[in-house]
Amino acid sequence: MNLLLGVNIDHVATLRQARYALLPDSPNAEPSPIDAAEDAKLGGADSITIHVRGDRRHMQEADAYRIKASTDLPINFEMGNTQEMIDIALKLQPKFICLVPETREEVTTEGGLDVAGLFDELSPTVKILQEAGMEISMFVDPDVCQIEASAKIGAEMVELHTGCFANAEKGCERDEELDRLRIAAQRGHELGIQVNAGHGINYENIQQIHAVPHLKELNIGHSIVARSVRVGFRQAVEEMRELMQGYNPEGAQV
Ligand code: PXP
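# pyridoxine-5'-phosphate complex -> structure
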């Protein structure tokens, strides 16, 4: 079974917003997230991830509907736990939801969702979205208690936050973070929950991700968008896909 690739195209919209924040619907507004979704598919993406943030810094609500209408790839909709985002999700009807923490000040999603601590607030949201037919993922730090809380809340998936691993210095520090990912993935597998991973994965550190067992999907955005400046979006996706080949979910037992 191949490791699946979800391509996060938020930063295509970041580039557009850098020039067209006030005119995202202008005929000149570029680059187009719709084109990026199409190229991602041609490059071998299995799903398209988009995050409409409360502050609308990259993807706009209209982008989400247009991308969904333009592609036959499943949409993974990342969202904070707010009524506004629940309403958008119910209208958008993506296949997957990834619940993420969100604060205005952060540059990007900086930590995992505290599913254990916010259990009572998250529980109704999970239920509403599942009843509307969506599969739910919890974006969590690689902590066993968060994986256990995600299983208890009834989420179908967890996405392990790989940011600490990606930002750790190569050597002991990164190996320690890799161990945390390995242990968390193992626990998710034992609990029968699908285990995905994402954040900060790039063309270099992906090699070490192969050592994390039981992964089903990686969600990768920034490094692919950055690489696309040199080689084009489709090739950037193809190159990442290539580096994901040969993953053995059972071969990296903890
Ligand atoms: N997964 C989640 C939940 C995220 O919030 C992000 C960043 O938007 C990613 C994956 C992708 O991270 P990156 O852009 O660093 O590849």
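# post-check
The chain is about 45% helix and 15% strand.
Residues 4-243 form a domain with the TIM Barrel fold (CATH 3.20.20.70).
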